[in-house]
User: Fold these one by one.
Assistant:
Number 1:
Amino acid sequence: MQTTWAYISNYFVYSAMAVFTISFISHAFETAFAVRAPEVADATQGNLLLKTLDYKRTEKAARIATAMMILGFILLLAGVIARGISAKHVPWGNMYEFSITGALAFTGAYLMALRKYDLRWLGLFVSISVLLTLGTAITLLYRNSAPLVPALKSTWLVIHVVAAIISGGVFLLANVVAGAYLYLERFEEIDQRPIWLQRVPSLEVLDQLSYRLVAFVFPLWTFAVIAGAIWAESAWGRYWGWDPKETWAFITWVAYAAYLHARVTVGWRGRRAAWLCIFAGSTFLFNYVYVNVWGTGKHTYSGL
Amino acid sequence: MSRDLEIPELGFVALLRYAWRQLTSMRTALILLMLMAVAAIPGSLIPQRITNPIAVRDVFITNPGLAKWYERFSLFDVYGSPWFSAIYILLFISLIGCVLPRSVEHYRAMRAQPPATPRNLARLEHYQAFASDLGALNRAEQWFKEHRFRVRVENDSLSAEKGYLRETGNLLFHLSLILILVGVSFGSLFGMRGEAIVNVGERFINIPTSYDSLSLGKLTSDKSLPAFEIHVDKFVAQYDPVTNAPKDYTAWVTITNDGKTYKKRIKVNHPLTFGNTRVYLQANGYSPVVTVRDSKGFVALQGPVPFLPQDGNLRSIGAIKVPDADPPVGFVGSFVPTNSRAGGQGAISIFPELLDPKLLFSIWKGELGLDSGIPQSVYRIDTSSLTKIGLGSVKPGETFTYPEGSITLETVVPWVNLQIVDDPGKTYALFGGIVAILGLLSSLYGRRRRIWIRTTSTGVEVAGLAKNGAPGLEVEVDRFIERVKGE
C-alpha cells in the first residue's frame, strides 16, 4: 500500500513536469510569435525594419501557458499529497520531498501574485526553474518513501516547514523580480529595451514589487525561525545553538532586515536595493543547498 | 596667523555627543546589520567548539598551523568572539539610541491632537471639492469616529489621523529584540547544561559528580541543582527494517522527587520537566555486561561498560579497564549489535538492534595509568606502554580464556544519554519572539494616513495623505466622501 502511493506520487510529479514543459513552450511561443515584422519599411527611421510586438496575436498561447501552469500546480500538489500518504507523515523528511514542495510553493507564489499583478512575463522563467528543480529532485535527490526519524516527529514539523517553504517561495520570486530589474536597467540606460522585453513593467514597478514581496513575507520568515527555535528547545534541549542551518537562517533574516531598513529608513531604491535583495535571497538558497548537501549539523538527516 | 582661522577644539562632551550621534544614525545601524550578516558566515564554515568539538580537535591534528591562526581570531568560537560580540553590542546600543527617543516622541504624538488642517488642501493628494449641506462636518466626524480615526476639531474643518499602530508596532518590534537578548544572556549566566550516560537498570542522581559533562553559567552555583533521581527501567529503540533509520526512541523511568516516586516516559520531543529544568533523551548505545577474572580466579570487574556508537548501525567502540586484576589488564573493544556474517576482517554491524551481538577485543597487559592524574577517555586506552597478550571475541554467555585470566560477556544492556538543561532565560526570549512577530506585522502591514475636510463658501473640500506611500487611501477617501454627501 505504502509503495503504491509512492508510485502514484511519482506519476503525478512526472505528469506535472510534462505539463510544466507545455507551459514553458507556450510561454516561449507567446513571446516569439508576438513579434511582427513591418510590411513596409519606415523611411523616417532610416529604412530600418522596426519590429513591433503584438501580444493579441498570441493571446491563445498565453492562455494555454497560464492554464498549464495552474494544471501543473494541481498535479504537483496531488504528487506532494500522495507522497505524504505513502510515508504516513507530512512529506518533508528529506531533500527530495523539500524540493518538490519548494517547487510547489514557488509556482503557488507566482500564481497568487499573478492574480494581483500582470506578471505573465515572468512565466517563462518560473516554468523553467520549476522544471529544473523537479528534474534535479527526481533524478539526483530521489529517495524511497521512509518513516521520519524521531526528532522530526512533532507538530512543529508542519508549522515550521510550511512557514519556511512559503517564505522561501516568495523570497525567490522577489529575487527574480529584482534580477529582472537589474537586467532591464542595463537596457534602459542606453534607452533601448529589446523588443521581447516590451511587456516587462517599468523599473519603478519592478522595484516596488520586489520590496512588497519581501515586506509581505518577512514576518512569516521571522515566525518560521521562532517556530524552529521552539521546536529545537523540545527536541534538542536548546532553542538556539548556531547549528549551520540556524546560522544561515539568521544570516538570511539579518540580510532582509538590512534590506527593509535600507529601503524604508535610508531610502535605497533601484540598483543598490535590488543587489541587496538578491544577496539576501542567495543566503536562503545557499542554506537550502549547501547545508543539506555538504553541511554537518542537526538539520542533516540520513541520505539528504 | 589670524585668529578666525583657528578651528575651535571639540570639547570632550561635544566629542561624545558627536560619537553618539554617529553611532545611532541609521547609516551606521545599516552597516552594522550587514556586518553582522557577514560576520556570522565563518561560524558555519569553520567547525565550532559549541556544536562540533571533535571536528575542532581534528583541525588541530591535521592542520596545526591553520588551527593556530583560527584560534588567534577566535574562529572556533565565532559567536562568543570579541569581534562578533562587538558588532552586536554596538548594534544594540545603536538600536537603543534610536528607539528610545522615538518611543518618547511617539508617546507624545499619540497623546497630542492630530496636526492642524493645512491651509491649502487643493495642493494635496486625493483632493475633491463638492457642494454639500450644513450637516457635512457632523457626518464626517461620525464617520471618523466609527472608523476609529483620532480627530482634531477646528472652526471650519476636521483633521483626522489613523494608523499609529504602525509606529507602535515598529517600536515594539525593536524593543522586543532587546528582550530576546536579555533572555539569551540571562540563560547563559544563570543556566546549566549537562549530560550523563545511564545504563538501563541504573539510577541517575542529580548531583554534579553524576554528570559526564557539566557546564554551569557564570553566575550559577552547582548547589542549585534540583534534587531528583531518575531510575531508567527500560529503553526501546525501533528501527525501520528496510532503511535501518530510527523510528522511535522511548525510555521508561521511575522518578523520585520531593519525596514522591512516580513513573514517566521520555521520548525525543517530549522531555521531562522539573520546574525550569528539563531532561532530554538525546542518544543511546549499548553496554556489554562483562565479568573479568584474573589468573587466580578472582572477579576483578563485573558490570556494564558503556560503548560509544560510531555509525547508524551502532557499531561501537569502548575500553574495559581492569586495574585491580593481577596483572592489570585492559581490553580495547568493538561491539556490534548485529554481527555481519559476510566474513571479512573487523567489526561490522548490519542492524542497530541486538539481533546477533558480538564483542571483539584485543587484550593488553601493564599499568593502565588510571592513577597518573592525567585525564583519560573512558572509551580509549593509551596502549603505548602496554603489551598485547591476546585477541578474541565473545557472544553473550560465552567466556574467552587467556593465560592471565578470562572475560565473560554476561549480557548486553542499552544505555541512554540524558541531557539535563536549566535555562531560566528562555521564557523571556520566547515572549520577546512573540512580541517581535506581532510588532512586525503591525509595522509592515499598518498604514498611517490623514484625511481632512473643510467647509468652504460653496460646499466642502476633502484631501488625504498616506505616509510611506501606502496604497488604498483613495478607496477610503471615496467611501468617506459618500458618507459626507449623505449617500
Number 2:
Amino acid sequence: MADSGELRKRTFVVTRFDPDKDQVPKTQSYEVPCRPEWKVLDALNYIKDEIDPTLSHRWSCRMAVCGSCGMNVNGTPKLTCKTSLAEYGDTVEVAPLANFPIIRDLVIEMDGFMEKFKAVKPWVIVAKEKAAEEGTYRQSPEQLAAFKQFSMCINCMLCYAACPVVAQEPDFLGPAAIALGHRYNMDSRDEGASERNEIFRGEGTVFSCSYANECSEVCPKHVDPAAAINQSKLLAVIDWATSFVVKREK
Amino acid sequence: MARPSDPQAMTPRKPGSTRTAPPQVPDDFWTQPRMRTYLLFDATGIVYLLVGLVALRVAWALAGGAPVWDALLRSFASPGYVIFHVLALISAIFVGVRFFRLFPKAQPAQIGPVKPPPPAVLHAVLYAAWGGITLVLLAVFGGIWP
Amino acid sequence: MVEVYRHDVVIVGGGGAGLRAAIAAVEADPKISVAMVSKVYPMRSHTVSAEGGAAAYVPGSEDSLEKHLYDTVKGSDFLADQDCAEYFVEQATAELTRLEHWGCPWSRNDDGTVATRPFGGMTVPRTWYAADKVGFHMLHSLFQHSMRFDRIVRYDENFVTKILVDDGVCRGVVAIDIRSGAMRMFLGRAVILATGGAGKCFPFTTNGTIKTGDGMALAYRAGVGLKDMEFLQYHPTGLPGTGILITEASRGEGGYVLNSEGERFLVTRDYGVGQKAELGPRDMISRAEILEMEAGRGLKGPYGEYVLLDLRHLGEAKIMAKLPFVRELARTYIGVDPVYEPIPIRPVVHYMMGGVDTDIRGATPIPGLYAAGETACVSMNGANRLGSNSLTECLVFGARAGVEAVAFAKGSADGNEARLRSEAETEGGRIDALRGRKKGGEKMSVIRHEMQLSMERGCGVYRKQESMNQAVAELAPLKGRYADLVLEDTSKVFNTEVLQALELGNMLDVAETIAIAAAARRESRGAHACRDYPNRNDAEFLHHSMMFFTPAGPRLDKKAVTITRFQPEERKY
C-alpha cells in the first residue's frame, strides 16, 4: 500500500493571471513539501491552503471522473488529480490547459467547448419517442460494446489541449465533441446519424483531422477519440453517398 | 507556455463576462517527437504536390511526341530528379505504413449489419494490395506485361 | 449593482436531481422557462462519482414493488416515511426506463434486457447498473438529454448565497457569477434546491470538494427545518486517506471483507447481517469493521487502521468486465491491483440521509421552495439508506419536484422586486466585505480542519454521548472564529477563496445541526450508533429530528414518521 514516508521539497512554477491586474499571464514559484503518494492536485491544494490563497484552480472529485482538474503539467495535458508527483523531478510546471482562453490563473474558458459539445446533438434522436410504459429498448451486449468506449468521455478537454488542429482551426469540432457524436451514431437506439453526419461534414468538419493522434495519447479514460474521428470520416462519406440514393426525412 | 495558438482557438461565440488571456501552447508543443513525426507526415503533402506537377510534365511530354518524351526521360536521370523520386518513394512508404497502422482503428464497429475483419486481416489485405499493385505497375512500365 | 434574470422556475444544482427536475419542468409545460444555476458545470456534479447502480423493480422478474418497499423501510430502521418510500418504489422502474430511452448505457443480459446485480440489504437483485460507473453514465445521459431543451437556460459557475423570500413565499435566489464576481438575482416563482449533501464536513469522505451542504444551509437560514441530520451514511469500503469510493458492487459481484487474520468476519462472527454477509446494509457493515479494528484485528497504515476487500477470487476477466473502474482506482490511488492483492478499505462518510425537510411532493414548508436528491430528506431513507436507492431517488423526487414547482409557479405571483433587489444588494455588500478581507486572525484551512476533526471524533460510525456533546461544544466557538477569517484574494475574477469561505460557513451551520441532532438522539437506530444507548427505542425516539435556525442558536424539534404498511420490528438480516 502507498506509504506516507519522507517529505520532498519540490518547486512548482505555476501560471498566474488576473485580468484586473495583469496584462499577460506570468509565472510564480512555490516551494512545496510533498508527500510521496501525492498527486499534482495535492500540491496545488497545499499551495492554496498554506502558502497562497489567491491561486484559483478547478477540481472536485479527485478520483479522475469529474473532469474538472485538467491542466498542462510540464507541457503535457494531464488530470492533476490522477498524475503522481513521483513522475516528476524537483521542478514541476503547472499551466492552464493549452488552446483555451485563460480566465484566471489555471482556470480556462470552457464555453467554447460547451458550444462544440452541443453542436453535435449529443442526445438520442428518434422519430417516435417511446413511453416509459413500453419498457426499455433491447440492446445486446454486442450493440452496447459498439459505442461503450466512446461514452466514457469525462469532458476533461485534455484532447483539445493536445490537438494541433484545435490550435490552428477555431471551427474544428474537436476530439471529444466528435467522439460524443460518434457515440450516439453507433448507439443502436439512436436514429439521428444522418443529422450528425451532416454536422460532421459541415463547418467544424471531421475531415480537418489529419491523424496526429495526440488526443488519444493524452486521454485519461482511453476513449480513443482519434478512432472515433476517423471512423466518423468513413461513416460521413457513406452517409453523403447514400443521401443521393435514399430519400431522407428532415 | 510560450507559443500562441490561433487567437480564436476554443473561443465561444458569445463573449464571456471577463477579459481572457489568449490561448497558448507549451514551448515544446510543435517540437516534441510525436508531433514532429506528425508534421513530417503532413509535410509529405508538399512532395505529392510536386509529384503532381511532375505528372503534368509527363502528360505534356507525351503530347509533345518522341523527341520531347526522350528529353524528359533523360532529364529524369539527373541527380536532382533521382533524389526527388527517391524522396517521393520514401514519403509514400512512410505515409502508407503510418496510414495502414491507423487503418484498423478507423473502422467503425459496425456499418449496418457489416462488421470489419480483424486488424491482422486488414493489414494483410492492405499490404497485399499495395504489393500487388506495385508489382503490376512495375511489370507494365518495365514492358514485361501485358 | 445586481444583474437580474427572470425565469419561471429556478433550480439550484445541476446534478442528477437538478437535471431531472429541469427536464420534468419543461416537459410539464411547453412554455415554462427554467434557470439551472450551478456552482460547477453540470458534468462535474458529484453524481458523476457514483459507481454501483440504481435500484428499481424489473417487470417480469421475481421482484415486486412490495419487496422493494419492505427492503427500503427495513433498511431505514423503520424511520422512513412509508408513503414516500411507496411512491418511490412505484416510480422507480419508469424513471430508470426513461433514462434508458435517453441513452443511458445500462449493462445488458444476453437477450438485450437490462441486467441487475445484488446489492446491500436487497432481498432480490434489482440494481440496474452500467459497468461500475452508473453515476457517471446517469449524469452524462441526463445532461446531454437536457441540452435539447432551449428553455432550460444554464448559468454555470454561479454560486447561490441566499434564498429570497417575500411575503412568506420563495421568489428566487441571489448568486455570485463566479467568473466575474458580479452579484446576480435569479427571480423565479419556484425554486428547487438540488445541491447534494455535505460530506466535506468530515476529513475522510467519498465526496468531492463541492459537497459542502450549500442548499441545506440556504434552506436552514431561510427558516426551513433540517430533518434527521444525525444520520450519516458511512460507506464500508472507502480507501484510507483519500476516502475514494470502492463501490458496493464489488461486494455485489462476490467480494469478501477480511480482517488482519484473513477471516471473513461478517460470516464467522455475528454482526447482525446473517446470511447476507458482505451484502448486509451499509451501517451494519461499517460498524462491524470498526469493531474488528477495535478488537485488534485491523491493519495499521499511515492514514489509520483499515481492513481488506478481497476480489482476487473473482478473477481478472470478471473484474475487467464488471469492476474495471474499481481496478483503476485501486491502482491509481492506493497502488494495489485488486486482481492480485486485497484492497485496503475502511468506513468513510458517503451520504447524508438527512437534509432539507420536504414532503412527498418535494415541497418544503415555504411555499415555492422545493428540494430533491441528497439535499432533501423526504424521508424515504430514514435512518439508513440502501445502496443504489439514492440515484433512483434523485430521478423520482427530482421529477416530482420539477412537476410540482411548475404547478406552483403557474399559480404564484412575482414578489416585490424592489424589496428583493435591495436584499440582493445587501447580500452583495456582505460578499464584497468578505472578499479579500485582509484583517482577521483565523486561517480558513485551520478552521476547516478543526471542524472536520471535531465531526470525525464526535459523529463517527460509533458515537458516545460524551464525544457528541464535545463536538457540539467545539463547533460553537469555531463559528465565532469563522467570523474572524482572513482572506487574501481581493480579485473579483474567479475568486475561489471567497467561495471556499462561503462554503465553510455553510458547512459549519450544517455540522452544528448534525452534532446537536446526534447528541439528542439517545438510542441507536440505523446509521446512528450510540454506545451509551445501544438499542433502538421506538417508544421515545420513533420520530424525525428537526433542526431550526434561530438567531439565538439552533432549535431542536421533532416530526412524526408516517407508518403505513410495515410496523417497526427488530431489524435483523
Number 3:
Amino acid sequence: MSTTLSLTVNGAPSAAQVEPRTNLADFLRDELMLTGTNVGCEHGVCGACTVLIDGVPARSCITLAIACDGADVRTIEGLDDDPVAALLREAFADEHALQCGYCTPGMLVTARDIVTRLPEADEPRVREELAGNLCRCTGYVGIVRAIMRVLGERRGAR
Amino acid sequence: MKAPKFEYAKPRSLEAAIRLLTDAGDGAKLIAGGQSLGPILNFRLAQPELLVDVRALPELAVVRDEGDAVFLGACTTHAAIEDGRMPDPTRGLLREVARTIAYRAVRNRGTLGGSIAHADPAADWMNVMALLDAEIVAHGPQGERKFRASAFVRGPLTTALAADEIITGVRIKRLSGRARWGYYKVNRKPGEFAEAIGAFVHDPERGVARALIGAIGDAPHVVADARPFVTGFDLAAAEAALDAAGLPASGYERQVHLVALKRAVAQSARASA
C-alpha cells in the first residue's frame, strides 16, 4: 500500500505516492531523478548517501521517505548556490580531494556541516568527524586538506 | 538490500500508539530515528508487518528538570545531548558519550529511547544508564511501568519491555558537585560499535561508587560496590569484576575489557568538568 508523501526538496515542494519501505535515497534517485545522492552500503556506515534533512546531515539510505513527510530535504544538487558548498567544491578540486567521486556528495554535505558547526575544528577533529564518510580511492589526505583550507579561509574572513 | 514490505503509521497520541501495538500482536515495531532499525530492515533481519513512528508523541518529547533528577524524553536525539541542548545532570558524562556515538549524521536522527529499546550490548546509552542507575519509564495498556536500567536489559537485543509497551523516557539522578566519572570505550575507529566499554562513577555525597563492564555480548555487568577504585585502579578488584562478568580467563577479550576499565578509572581522577 502506498502513502502520500509531501515534502520540500531543494527548495521546491514535492508530492508523491511512496511505499512505506522506500528509503529516502531511493525516492530521491528513482522518483525525483536526483542521482547526485549515491547509495553505497545501504546500512548507514559509508556516508555516501548523506543529505540534509531539516538543515542537518542524515543518512538517506536508512531514513524512510515516508518519515520525511513535511521535511525540508536538501541534496547535493540543492547546494549549487550555497556559499559554503562553493568554497568546498573549489577546495576539493584544488586539493585533489576526489578521484572516482562516489563518496564526494556525502563528503561535501558532511564537510559543510563540519565547517559551519565546528568553525574552530583542528585536523584531528576533522578526521574524527569524517569517520562516518568512507573514501576508498582518493584517501583522506586531500579531503582533510580541503576542509582545513575552507575552515582557515572562513576564520580569516571573520 | 532493500527493506521488506510493511505498513506505516504515525499516531499522534500515546494511547493510539499503544492501541496499534496491542492490535498488531507481535507484528509491529516502533521506529523513531530508525538508525538501528533502518539497517536491520535493509538487511531483512526484521520483517515487521507494521512500523509505528513514535516521533509525533508529545510524551516522548518531554524534557524536565526535576531538581534531583532530569527526565529526558525517549525521542531526545544524541545530537541534542552532544550540543548541550538538554539539561545534563551528570557533570558532562552524557555530553561526552553522545559525541562518540556513531557519526553526526546518525546522531542527528538517532534517539535515546530507540537506542535503549534496541539494547545492543556494544551501544552506549544502555551502558551509561546502567552505570548511573537510571530509571527507564515505559507506558503500555496498563499504564506506566518503571525499570531500573540494570534490570531493564535482559541480554543482547533483549529487554523487559513488553510488545505493547513504549519507552517514554529516562530519569537520571543528578550527580553532586564532587562526583567524578570516567567512561572509556575501545573501538577500531571513531563511531564504530565498541569492542569494550569500561565506566566508573564516584559520587561521595550520594554514597555512590559504581563501575561497569560493557560490550560483553550480553547485558552490561554492573559493579554496584566499586569502592576499591575510589583511590585509583585496583587490579584485584578489576580481575574479580571481569570474572563476575563472565569474561574468559585470558586472551584479547579479557585484556581489552581490563584496559577499558583501567582507563575509565584513570579518567575519573582528572578534574571533572
Number 4:
Amino acid sequence: MARALALNPRRGMALCALTGLLLAVLVQGRLEASRPAGAVHPLLYLPSGKYLRAVSLGFDGLVADMIYLWSIQYYGNFDIKDRYSYLEHIYGQVITELDPHYLDPYLVGALIMSAEARQPEMALRLLDKGVNNNPDQWIVAFEAGFLCYDELHDYKRAAYYFRRASEIPGAHPLVRRLYAEMYNRAGDKRTSLKEWSEIYDSSDDPYVRNVAWNHVHDLKVDVDLHDLKEAVSRFSDKAGRPPARLGELVTAGIAGALPLDPEERDYLYDARTGDVRYRGSLVLGR
Amino acid sequence: MPVLELKDVHKSYRSHLSIRKHWVLRGLSLSIEPGEIFGFIGTNGAGKTTTIKLALGLIFPDAGSVTLFGQEGVPAEARRRVGFLPENPYLYDYLTGEEFLDFHARLFGIDAPTRRARVRELLGRVGLANRGDRQLRHYSKGMLQRIGLAQALINDPDLVILDEPMSGLDPIGRREVRDIILELKSRGRTIFFSTHILSDTEMICDRVGLLVRGSLKAVGRIDELVSRDIPYWEVALQGVKNGNLPCGQVVSRRDDRLLVRVESPADMHRILATLNGGGAQLVSVTPGRQSLEDLFIREARASAAVPAESPERHAR
Amino acid sequence: MLARINAIALNTFREAIRHRILYLLLIFAVAMISFAQILSLVTVGSEEKIIKDFGLATIDIFGVLTAVFIGIGLVSREIERRTVYTLLAKPLHRFEFILGKFAGLALTLVVNTSVMTAWFFLVLLLKGMFDANLAAAVLLLYFQFLLITAIAVLFSCLSTPILASVMTLALYVIGHLLWSLDLLAVRLTATWGKAFCRVLYLVLPNLGTFDIKGEVVHGVPIDAARIAWAAAYLVLYGSAILGTACALFERKELQ
C-alpha cells in the first residue's frame, strides 16, 4: 500500500477518504445500537404551537404536517415503551395550535389516545377542541359521539355529539339516525320514538324510511307496553285489584284511549298476572 | 465653446476608518476644445481617472463645476454625444460581442436595423469581425479592449473619452488604436484620453495636460510646453586630464571621452575656455531637446518635495 | 425612457437566465414537489393537504431565495465589477438603471414561478386534487417575491452582497413576525411603548399580507378584494422602497 501511495498520491488520498467514511459509518452504527430505544425524542419537547409560529415564518401548515407525520411514526413504533407521556401535548398543543383546521391530527390523535393509550377522556378533550375550531366539519363531532357510544357507553354524551354533528350541513344522514338511537340506548325510548318518527316523516329515501319504520315499530311497542303496564299498576293500586280487561282502564278514567299496536290490533292482556303483551314480534328482535 | 470644462474642481475621499479627508483634486481647471486630441498624463494616483469620472457624472465634485456640452452638472442628456472606455473594462461575460454592442446601442434609442448595421461596422473597425458571436468570457485581454472601444463608438460620439486605451494591447493593437483616434479627429471629433505611455502622447496629441498629485502642472501644446523649458547643450570632450570642470554636469565618461551637460551658453563658453589650457579637445556640441518625459519627471519630483494636503494650490 | 429601462431589464433577465445557479434551484424545486408525493404516502389521513402544503411552501421558499440571492447582487455586483461605468456613461438616468434591474429580476421570477407552478399543478391535476384558488395563492406569493426583490435592490445599492443578504433575510423574517409586535403592544403598559409597537407594525413590510397558503389549502374561499388589497400594498410599499433606492443611487459616488 505504501508503494501505491508513493506511486500515486491521489489514489492514496482517495483511499484514506473512503476508509474514513466507512469507519465513521461503523461508529455511528455502534453509537445508535448502544442507545436504548428510549421514549425520549427531542420533538416531544416542542413548545406550544402558539410559540412555534414564531419560527415557522408563515409555513405553519407545513410544519404541522411534518410534526404530524413524525408523530404517527413515533406513536406507531411499538418498540418505544412509555411513549404516551406527551401524547396530549403533541396533539393538543403543538400540532393543533399550529394548524387548528388540520383534521387528521384530531381524528387520528383521538384514535391513538383512546385505542392505544387507553385514555378516552383525553381523546374527548382533543375532539372537543377540534369541534370548536372546526364548527363546519361534522366528522369531528361524529368521532366524539362514536367514542362515547362505543368505548364509554355514555349514551347521553354520545347523543349530544351526534346532534351537534347532524346539525352541520353536509353531515352524513346516518348521524341523525345514530342520534335517534342513542336515546333508546340511554333508556329514553319516548324521545327516541319521537326522533325516529321525525326521521321517517322527513325522509324520501325508501331505505331510510324502512330503517326508520323498523325502529318506530319496535319503539312504539315498547312505549305502549310501558304505558299500559304503568296504567294497570295505577288501576291496581286504586281499585285494589287488577283490571279484568284493558277497557276498564278507560272506563275508570286511568287511560284516555287504548293504544293499538303497530298492526292496529289490541295488545294482549292477562288478567291473572296483570301482564300486557304484544301479540306480534319485534322487527329488530332485541 | 469647449466640449468639456472643469472649473476649479476639488475632490476628496474619506476612507472608512479615518475622519481625515484625502484630497485627490485641488482646484483643477481644464477645458477641452472641439476637434482636438487631448492627452492627459500624470503620475499614478494623480487623479486622472477621478477627473474622467467627474467629467462623466459618475462622481460629483466637492467644489467647482463640471460642464459637458454646455450642460452643467452632467445630466443624462449631456452624455448623448459622448463615448467612454474605462480602464480595464469589465464587461458582461455572459453576452456575446454582438449582444454586448447591441445592448449598449439600445440605450441610445437607436432602432433595430441601424443597430445591426452599426454593430457590424464597428466590429470590423476594431478588428473583431469574425468574433462577434463568441461570449465575452472567451475573449482575450486585447479583444476585450477592442470591444470596449467599439462600445465607446457605438453612438458615433462627438467626444470620446478613453481611460488608458492602450493598456493590454500589443504594438499592433496600439497602432490600430492610434489610427482610430486619428481617424476620428479627421472627422472633426474630439478625443480626450489618459495614458502612461508618453510616446503615444507625443505622437498624436494636439495638447497635453500633466496632472501631478491633483494639480495640473502643465497644459498646452507639446511644442510650447517642452520648448518653454530651458534647453541644454551636451558637450563631448576628449583628453581631459583632470576631472575638474568649472561647471556643468558629467553625463558619461568613457576612456578619456567626457560628455558634459551645460545649461546656459555662458557655462558652455566657460568649459570651452578651460580646454585650451588643458590639452583637451572638443569633439561635439549638441543642443539637447527636452522630451515630455523630462518635463514629467521634473514636475513629479518638484511636487514630491512639497508637503501635500493644502487645497489652495492652483493650476497654472 | 421605457426603451432604456426595457434594455436594462432584458439584459438583467438574460444574465439571470444564463446563471447556472438558477437551474439548480429549479431542479431542486421540482424535486421537492415530487418528494411531496412520497411523503404523502407515509401519512395516515389526507395526503392532499400534505402535497398542497409542500408544493406551496416549495414555490414560496425557492422564489424568496431567487429574489434575495440574485437581487442583492443586481446593483452591487455591477459596481464591484465596474460594468456600471460604461452603462452610466450613456444618456441613461440613474433611476432608469435601478428600475430596469428590478424589472429584469421580476421577469426572471415570472419564469421561475411559472415553471414551478406548472409542475405543481400538473401533479395535482393528475391526482385530481386541483383547486383554482391555488392560483390565487401563487399570485400572492409572486407579489411577495416582488416586494422582497425591491428590498434586495435597495440594500444592494447600500452595501456589499454579504451585508445586503443578511439585511434582506432579516427583513424577510421580521416581515413574517409582525403579528408578535401586536402581541407585545398588548403586554406593554406605557403608551409610548404601545405607540412605538404600533408604528413599527405599520411601517415594517407586512409579508403576511401575501400569505394565503393556509386558507387555500383548507378550502376557504378567497374573494377578489383580498387580492386587490394585497396588490395595492405591493404597489405602494414597493414604490416607496424603489423610490428610496433610486434616490440613494442618484447621488452615489461610483468609485
